[in-house]
């Protein structure tokens, strides 16, 4: 490999008008990460000395989106005040790149490009001063064509709008990804012109100049053509999303995860899943999330920014957000675990139960139709159907503390702040507003009466 430092230029200045969006195109997302984020991931894997990101349309929004990126110290933001073409964009970044460097140019709207593909391409600069990533496609319509002579040497690139009928029949296309030695690149960029259908300075014109100078041009192709698929429309964004999701699904299955239907799972952001976990259809998992081994996840669940330990069962239609679930717990169906929830080992959260900012200890059970918010629930405590912790007084939130081995009957309201000590029993239908001591029975409801001979009201007949 070359001892020359690597500098990467990412072209991110375009408006993306075909997206019909107020948001810059490169901030649209695939699998929960922006297009630019995906390209940066591959670029950073090459250990560059610096990454120069050429911005224009929506530059403030783009720069703000990466203000806290962990590798931001490697980013140099370069503004292209006029969008005069890809050659002009690279020229704006060139002054900050040292003479002895290798330069790799990427486009920010090609999110599936692999680090290995880029590594293979930059390795060409050991023996060549210019290399390009190409692809051979079935339908090259709208794409720049690679021209070669009878010996197979690359002689240049012709854009679709500038191509004649013979050139349009060529199926080898330009990916937009080029690497070159900085010294030669600078010379070629000063010699390109805008004499074309778009009146722009094309970076790709440097290939024709290199051929004229007698400089051999290397080329490589990606393992799969979709690596170089660019995004210019919502349709293409959706196509790339499905391609990427299938890649993630295949990787999970290779790691020992069972997917009932690999085409019906969505992974967004940083997600890890242990072996022997089984995931049914229509599950969405958003990172950062860790799911352990031997977990089962039923259909139509959404899991966001959570940690799920081994051997947890999550039943259908459950929504989990910013929650920690310990091993052996059982959740759902139709449960909603909101941020700040912690579920202990072998605990049970049943159907139509909602929790928020609450901790349930080992073996605790909330089986039906209950709300537990701003609460601590002790070991082996059972909370009956229809129980509510009344944690909000209209202005402030208050804490409910429930000890170990407590039994709370159905249809109770626990008005916070309130504490129920170990072993207490709360009679069904009670409204608890005061402290309940250890092993005490608390009942707060009107005495039942039976009225004999009572006549049920009847509707008046209309004349």
From TrEMBL:
Subcellular location: Cytoplasm
Top enzyme category: transferase
Broad class of where this protein is predominantly found: cytoplasm
Mannose-1-phosphate guanyltransferase C-terminal domain segment(s): 320-387
The protein's required cofactors: Mg(2+)
Gene Ontology CC terms, in alphabetical order: cytoplasm; membrane
Pathway terms, separated by semicolons: Nucleotide-sugar biosynthesis; UDP-N-acetyl-alpha-D-glucosamine biosynthesis; UDP-N-acetyl-alpha-D-glucosamine from N-acetyl-alpha-D-glucosamine 1-phosphate: step 1/1; Nucleotide-sugar biosynthesis; UDP-N-acetyl-alpha-D-glucosamine biosynthesis; N-acetyl-alpha-D-glucosamine 1-phosphate from alpha-D-glucosamine 6-phosphate (route II): step 2/2; Bacterial outer membrane biogenesis; LPS lipid A biosynthesis
Catalytic activity: N-acetyl-alpha-D-glucosamine 1-phosphate + UTP + H(+) = UDP-N-acetyl-alpha-D-glucosamine + diphosphate; alpha-D-glucosamine 1-phosphate + acetyl-CoA = N-acetyl-alpha-D-glucosamine 1-phosphate + CoA + H(+)
Residues annotated as binding UDP-N-acetyl-alpha-D-glucosamine: 11-14, 25, 80, 85-86, 144, 159, 174, 232, 338, 356, 371, 382
Any one Gene Ontology molecular-function term assigned to this protein's record: glucosamine-1-phosphate N-acetyltransferase activity
Region Linker, residue ranges: 235-255
Pfam families: GMPPB_C, Hexapep, NTP_transf_3
Binding sites annotated in the UniProt record for Mg(2+): 109, 232
Keywords, ordered alphabetically: Acyltransferase, Cell shape, Cell wall biogenesis/degradation, Cytoplasm, Magnesium, Metal-binding, Multifunctional enzyme, Nucleotidyltransferase, Peptidoglycan synthesis, Repeat, Transferase
Listed EC numbers: 2.7.7.23, 2.3.1.157
GO annotation terms (biological process): cell morphogenesis; cell wall organization; lipid A biosynthetic process; peptidoglycan biosynthetic process; regulation of cell shape; UDP-N-acetylglucosamine biosynthetic process
Binding-site residues, acetyl-CoA: 385, 391-392, 410, 428, 445
Cofactor note text: Binds 1 Mg(2+) ion per subunit.
PANTHER family registered for this protein in UniProt: BIFUNCTIONAL PROTEIN GLMU, NUCLEOTIDYL TRANSFERASE
Protein family according to the UniProt entry: In the N-terminal section; belongs to the N-acetylglucosamine-1-phosphate uridyltransferase family.
Subunit text: Homotrimer.
Known role: Catalyzes the last two sequential reactions in the de novo biosynthetic pathway for UDP-N-acetylglucosamine (UDP-GlcNAc). The C-terminal domain catalyzes the transfer of acetyl group from acetyl coenzyme A to glucosamine-1-phosphate (GlcN-1-P) to produce N-acetylglucosamine-1-phosphate (GlcNAc-1-P), which is converted into UDP-GlcNAc by the transfer of uridine 5-monophosphate (from uridine 5-triphosphate), a reaction catalyzed by the N-terminal domain.
Protein name: Bifunctional protein GlmU
Natural source organism: Arenicella xantha
């Amino acid at each position: 490999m070359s001892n020359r430092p690597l500098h990467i230029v990412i072209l991110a200045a375009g408006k993306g008008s075909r997206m019909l969006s107020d948001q810059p195109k490169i901030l649209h997302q695939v699998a929960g990460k922006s297009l630019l984020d995906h390209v940066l991931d591959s670029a950073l894997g090459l250990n560059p000395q610096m990454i120069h990101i050429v911005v224009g349309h929506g530059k403030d929004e783009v720069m703000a989106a990466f203000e806290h990126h962990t590798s931001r110290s490697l980013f140099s933001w370069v503004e292209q005040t006029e969008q005069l073409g890809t050659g002009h964009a690279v020229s704006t970044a060139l002054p900050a790149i040292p003479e002895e460097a290798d330069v790799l140019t990427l486009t920010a709207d090609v999110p599936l490009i692999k680090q290995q593909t880029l590594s293979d391409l930059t390795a060409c600069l050991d023996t060549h001063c210019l290399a390009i990533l190409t692809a051979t496609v079935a339908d090259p319509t709208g794409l720049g064509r690679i021209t070669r002579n009878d010996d197979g040497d690359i002689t240049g690139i012709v854009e679709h709008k500038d191509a004649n009928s013979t050139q349009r029949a060529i199926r080898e296309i330009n990916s937009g990804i080029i690497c070159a030695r900085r010294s030669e690149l600078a010379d070629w960029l000063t010699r390109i012109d805008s004499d074309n259908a778009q009146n722009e300075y094309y970076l790709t014109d440097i290939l024709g100049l290199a051929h004229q100078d007698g400089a051999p041009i290397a080329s490589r192709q990606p393992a799969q053509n979709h690596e170089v698929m660019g995004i210019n429309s919502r349709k293409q964004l959706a196509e790339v999303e499905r391609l990427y999701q299938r890649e993630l699904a295949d990787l999970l299955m290779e790691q020992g995860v069972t997917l009932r239907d690999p085409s019906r799972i969505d992974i967004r952001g940083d997600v890890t899943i242990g072996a022997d976990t089984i995931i049914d259809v229509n599950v969405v998992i958003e990172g950062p999330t860790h799911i352990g081994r031997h977990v089962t996840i039923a259909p139509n669940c959404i899991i966001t920014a959570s940690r799920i330990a081994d051997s947890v069962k999550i039943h259908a239609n459950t929504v989990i957000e910013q929650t920690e679930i310990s091993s052996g717990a059982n959740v759902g169906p139709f449960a909603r675990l909101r941020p700040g929830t912690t579920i202990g080992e072998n605990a049970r959260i049943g159907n139509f139960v909602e929790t928020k900012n609450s901790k349930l200890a080992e073996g605790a059970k909330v089986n039906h139709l209950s709300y537990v918010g701003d609460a601590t629930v002790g070991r082996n405590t059972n909370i009956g159907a229809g129980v509510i912790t009344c944690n909000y007084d209209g202005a402030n939130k208050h804490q409910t503390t429930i000890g170990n081995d407590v039994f709370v009957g159905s249809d109770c309201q626990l008005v916070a702040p309130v504490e129920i000590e170990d072993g207490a029993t709360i009679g069904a239908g009670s409204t608890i507003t005061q402290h309940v001591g250890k092993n005490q029975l608390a009942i707060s409801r009107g005495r039942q009466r039976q009225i004999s001979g009572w006549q049920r009201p009847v509707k008046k007949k209309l004349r």
